[in-house]
Amino acid sequence: MLKGISIYPETLSNKKKINRIRRDKNGPAKEGGRGNLLVDAAESGLMGPDKAPDGPPHVDQLPIKVDYGDELSPDQSLTPGGSKTSSPSSPGDDVMLGDLTFSVDYNFPKKALVVTIQEAHGLPVMDEHTQSSDPYIKMTILPDKRHRVKTRVLRKTLEPVFDETFTFYGIPYSQLQDLVLHFLVLSFDRFSRDDVIGEVMVPLAGVDPSTGKVQLTREILKRNIQKCISRGELQVSLSYQPVAQRMTVVVLKARHLPKMDITGLSGNPYVKVNVYYGRKRIAKKKTHVKKCTLNPVFNESFIYDIPADLLPDISIEFLVIDFDRTTKNEVVGRLILGAHSGSAAGAEHWRQVCDSPRKAVAKWHSLSEY
């Protein structure tokens, strides 16, 4: 197995599918069957980056008065490091998160920093079904955050041995004292977003690899979710037609997205739009993938039927996602507008849309960490 990856500075500078589901109040969902409520779940796939689908925008008939199970609302299901299903093994303040062992070395002839992620011990249980975890580690060199790498996932273990070496070229030895190694320890989740176990921050100002490899073991600490990380910006437009009782959502463009690929190359972003009524997700759509860009232009619209009296309970979530053919897609950042807006700017945008019927209100929003 190929272990690790070498990072070079030159790599761092630089038709519609429609599902119609009818649901009875007293029975399960049926394809094309008789029922009291119709949901048009028209979702555009990842058809390509160059052109949008032909024809009119998609329209969702939003379900209002039926029980859709236990899907959580954005404020509950999208908290960093959380899980779609509650787990008593999720790390808390009183849970020991284990420790991480790694080494730091410097190759003077090649002006390269060499980091070997060796192993972790005493990780907490993140999967209550297997009473284990599927750990892997993401590493970033701060403050520039250009160097991003990650290990392979090790299945069902609380004592993972990675033994993976990453070489970062073009880093002068004199700059080491200004750098910080950030290790993020995660547990892979096949059915939802991965669980964050904790993090390790190592300032290189206190490390001297000039005479050889330095072996270090650090305690894994609970992640500081309030740290400020730039995730880029997303521009969206919303307008509400009170007569037709329709909300038009337009995903316009994004800018300054971070590089998510471990090689440091530009990503392949797309936007997933989730609509919530109270605590239930009732519609989901996604734009096309825009290849090899950190400043994508989407210009894709989606239309939802929403009665006016239900607007106070509606939330619209935008997830900017980096598409990856070989590994799991990674969420770049998120934005929530509506009942669960997480920012003053988001709440104000929603208020303007509700107070200005028939007017398209477009705004830029900073993406928050997912």
TrEMBL record:
GO MF annotations for this entry? calcium ion binding; calcium-dependent phospholipid binding; clathrin binding; phosphatidylserine binding; SNARE binding
CDD domains from the xrefs? C2A_Synaptotagmin-4-11 (cd08388), C2B_Synaptotagmin-4 (cd08404)
Family to which the UniProt record says this protein belongs: Belongs to the synaptotagmin family.
Which residues are in the C2 domain? 96-218, 230-365
Keywords on this record? Calcium, Cytoplasmic vesicle, Membrane, Metal-binding, Phosphoprotein, Repeat, Transmembrane, Transmembrane helix
Q: Name one Pfam family in it.
A: C2
Task: Name its GO BP terms in alphabetical order.
Answer: calcium ion-regulated exocytosis of neurotransmitter; negative regulation of secretion by cell; vesicle fusion
Q: Which organism is it from?
A: Zosterops lateralis melanops
Q: Where is the composition biased (Basic and acidic residues)?
A: 24-33
Topology in the lipid bilayer: Single-pass membrane protein
The organism's taxonomic lineage, starting at the top: Eukaryota, Metazoa, Chordata, Craniata, Vertebrata
Q: What is this protein called?
A: Synaptotagmin 11
Region described as Disordered: spans on this chain: 13-94
Q: Which InterPro entries match?
A: C2_dom, C2_domain_sf, Synaptotagmin
Compositionally biased spans, kind Basic residues: 14-23
Listed GO CC annotations: axon; cytoplasmic vesicle membrane; exocytic vesicle; plasma membrane; presynapse
Quote the subcellular location field of this record.
Cytoplasmic vesicle membrane; Endomembrane system
Q: Where is the composition biased (Low complexity)?
A: 77-92
